Amino acid sequence: MSERVFISPAKYVQGKNTIDRIGDHVGHFGSQALLIADDIVWRLIGERVTDSLKASGVNAEKADFVGEASRHEIERIAKAAAESHTAVVIGMGGGKTLDTAKAVADELDARIVIVPTIASTDAPTSALSVIYTDEGNFETYRFYKKNPDLVLVDTKLIAEAPARFLASGIADALATWVEVRSVLAFGGKTMAGGVPTIAAEAIAKRCEEVLFDYGILAYESVKAKVVTPALESVVEANTLLSGLGFESGGLAAAHAIHNGFTALHGDIHHLTHGEKVAFGTLVQLALEGRTQAEFDRYIALYMALELPVTLEDVKLKDASREDILKVGQAATAEGETIHSGFDVTPEQVADAIIAADRYARLYQSKLR
Ligand SMILES: [Zn+2]
Description:
Blueprint: E1 12-15, H1 22-26, E2 32-37, H2 39-55, E3 59-64, H3 71-80, E4 88-93, H4 95-108, E5 111-116, E6 128-132, E7 138-143, E8 150-154, H5 155-160, H6 163-186, H7 198-223, H8 229-249, H9 253-261, H10 273-288, H11 292-304, H12 321-331, H13 346-367
Bound molecules: zinc ion.
């Protein structure tokens, strides 16, 4: 029998300058906190977070995040903190810092608080980390018993980060409904270990509506470094709605195709997660045989957000059919999320990649 499973963080808090109130939300976890951040993030917010914690009676110990979200880095930080009786681990920064903090909290059996300083992916709310080798290559997913105890997002920090990060987060979040919809149609399983709930379906659908309504306005807000209602809505869609949506609603072809691109060498690796997912989403739409009107709608939004829509944009202009087929093979490898939404062969994926590129170029040619 298929069980419906829904998981989520215990608490989500979002607002302008909200890091100055982190102590109010963390104080009851215990009196000893381990703060994990890299140098840049520490200089940006370290003192404000420490001050707020101190006001709530929480003592803060700092751990420098210096490398990768790798086994070594996790072990190193966990070992250094082993004698400190850490009640709560607070990860502050981008994806790799946050993934490391989740793993360290798991090792120390402590509460985990996630403070994303950019809204570039939907990973913060999830009960999993992506673990890399020390050289920065994907190694494995690490799953945890529970989601974060608190996810706290300061929209002032997001507004002051480069706009490219927000656009990447929008692309990651735009994939959510496209993928959940195919998991629902196929009867597939989700990252939470069951079939999607009505809650996850509703959240994923609303995520997409918010992004089409406010995505461009939010992008412009970040370019101007101002916090607006549009930005607040899109940060929630990128972080909370997409996070709950993908984890309890499921991933499908778009993310598998993203992973498939790692089978290739070259400049594609300079793209962000969300940028690769943007093109992967177009490929999924091509696989599904969606209408021209639907393609045009996505391509227009991606282009307004300066996201990649063609093979040239993802640095694969000169890729051979053989290379494209390699992506198709990697995307359809056993265990890949494409199988939660599709019955599909590597050849079909390769054809869809070529078709998606062609559709985007057709759209662009009409603009000239
Ligand atoms: Zn993603």
